[in-house]
């Protein structure tokens, strides 16, 4: 973890935006896989990590916004646990590492919350996303656990989003470490991308890299020649010449900061001319939007810019027709790029998504669109210096979507369906990078990762 004063400062800053009530942060516990003592790999809650930094199961943190006192609740392990787990630091020592002077056993939390609630004080908590946390909150607050998500404190969500959105230098350094792990995962995948190799073999090797250099993958690895399926977690295909492998993966640094990078590699290491044409359109959308990203510009503006580049490219290939701006305004491009341009990145790969996408990426002034495609944009607000974002335009040929739209004559003024048919087995291309918005523009994070068609072909040869 970082030094104790990092967490003390973050809590102090939160205390400036909330000035009464109790902030209750329930840390994660182990989640069983197939029986209680066989858990999934432990992942601490990101908000708990942000304010208390302790990467251990079974803790709760409390911030008293009236008195300014902080507390860690948790249980010291007994000799039986030490026999199985080895010696563990005391809760008091752990609390001090987070700059917290007050610590107490978990059973005292119930009385603490009961007293606070009994005297009419507001108990602020963030939306829970795990059943175990809902149960703990429900039992502490004597309320239906199923309603805990809707009872979360908007005031606390706002305060947390404001802090976590602007990254500290130490956080940027962690994200860069995570990008560098992703770089190694991607270069390895490119070099293994040869005919006859099964996707699973590459998946296993790159997942191993994430575990050997950090805290493992930042989300389930997407690696498939069926790249038209946006979140494809199946890895059963054998690679064949003429197809492209889309790899979307990232890692967590040892302090749980995330990267998220996508590359699309031709099997065997050489693009066909048809693949290269589409690749270069997506590359232009990636490069031009990165070039344009700066404070004041919104992620929504940049998304529209990427969509117009994709639509213009599709028009150049004869797959779209008519006025490109009009086509994008009505959402016709979404046949080819049905997702958003990118999202915030930090302690979560979709940073703070658990707090509610609209609480992070939209406001009273900037509302989420309900148009197909644009509706998936996770963040519509202007960029600020200190934001960390992914930029991930793509172009996909999704046979089921083509059939549906064609059947409904959807946007027939803008789409040449006969020509689109010629690409129905093409697959998908996405190119994703991670960048920091600076005062004057932006900076790509991490060492450069092969990206142009020529660079990819060179890397595959290496
Ligand atoms: N990398 C997966 C996603 O952004 O959804
Ligand atoms: Mn992403």
Give your account of this protein's structure.
With 462 residues, this protein is an alpha+beta fold. It has 2 domains: 4-165, Creatine Amidinohydrolase, Chain A, domain 1 (3-Layer(aba) Sandwich), CATH 3.40.350; 169-460, Creatinase/methionine aminopeptidase superfamily (Creatine Amidinohydrolase, Alpha-Beta Complex), CATH 3.90.230.10. Helix content is 39%, strand content 11%. It contains 16 helices and 13 strands. The protein has helices at residues 4-17, 46-52, 79-85, 91-97, 107-118, 131-141, 154-165, 169-192, 199-213, 273-292, 299-316, 324-330, 357-361, 399-407, 417-421, 453-461; strands spanning 22-26, 60-64, 70-73, 102-104, 123-124, 222-224, 244-249, 261-266, 388-391, 394-396, 428-430, 433-437, 442-444. It has a 5-stranded mixed beta sheet with strand order 4-3-2-1-5, with helices on both faces. The radius of gyration is 24 Å and the shape is globular. 44% of the residues are buried. The model has no long low-confidence stretch (mean pLDDT 97). Residues 260, 343, 390, 392, 432 line the site of manganese (II) ion.
């Amino acid at each position: 973890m970082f030094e104790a004063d990092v967490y003390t400062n973050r809590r102090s800053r939160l205390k400036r935006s909330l000035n009464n009530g109790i902030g209750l942060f329930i840390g994660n516990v182990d989640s069983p896989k197939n029986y209680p003592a066989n858990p999934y790999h432990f992942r601490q809650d990101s908000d708990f990590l942000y304010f208390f930094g302790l990467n251990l199961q079974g803790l709760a943190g409390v911030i008293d916004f009236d008195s300014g006192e902080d507390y860690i609740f948790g249980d010291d392990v007994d000799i039986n646990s030490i026999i199985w787990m080895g010696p563990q630091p005391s809760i008091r020592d752990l609390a001090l590492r987070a700059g917290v002077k007050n610590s107490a056993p978990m059973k005292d939390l119930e009385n603490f919350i009961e007293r606070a609630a009994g005297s009419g004080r507001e108990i602020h908590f963030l939306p829970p996303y795990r059943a175990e946390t809902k149960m703990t909150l429900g039992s502490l607050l004597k309320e239906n656990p199923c309603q805990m998500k809707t009872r979360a404190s908007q005031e606390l969500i706002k305060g947390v989003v404001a802090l976590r959105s602007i990254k500290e230098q130490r956080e940027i350094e962690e994200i860069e470490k995570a990008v560098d792990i992703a770089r190694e995962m991607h270069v390895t995948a490119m070099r293994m991308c040869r005919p006859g190799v099964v996707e699973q073999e590459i998946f296993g090797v790159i997942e191993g890299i994430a575990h050997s250099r950090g805290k493992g993958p930042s989300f389930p690895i997407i690696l498939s020649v069926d790249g038209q399926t946006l979140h494809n977690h199946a890895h059963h295909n054998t690679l064949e010449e003429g197809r492209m492998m889309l790899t979307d993966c990232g890692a967590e640094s040892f302090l749980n900061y995330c990267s998220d990078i996508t590359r699309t590699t031709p099997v065997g290491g050489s693009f066909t001319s048809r693949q290269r044409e589409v690749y270069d359109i997506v590359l232009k959308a990636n490069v031009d939007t990165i070039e344009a990203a700066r404070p004041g510009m919104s992620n929504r503006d940049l998304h529209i810019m990427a969509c117009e580049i994709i639509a213009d490219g599709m028009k150049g290939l004869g797959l779209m027709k008519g006025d490109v701006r009009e086509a994008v305004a009505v959402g016709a491009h979404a046949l080819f790029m049905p997702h958003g341009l990118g999202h915030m990145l930090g302690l979560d790969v979709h940073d703070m998504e658990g707090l509610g996408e609209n609480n992070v990426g939209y406001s009273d002034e900037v509302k989420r669109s309900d148009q197909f495609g644009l509706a998936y944009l996770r963040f519509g607000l202007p960029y600020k210096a200190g934001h960390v974002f992914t930029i991930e335009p793509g172009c996909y040929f999704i046979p089921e979507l083509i059939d549906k739209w064609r059947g409904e004559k959807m946007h027939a003024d803008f789409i040449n369906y006969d020509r689109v048919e010629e690409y129905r087995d093409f697959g998908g291309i996405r190119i994703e990078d991670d960048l920091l918005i600076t005062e004057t523009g932006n900076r790509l994070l991490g060492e450069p990762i092969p990206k142009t068609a020529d660079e990819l072909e060179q890397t595959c040869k290496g």
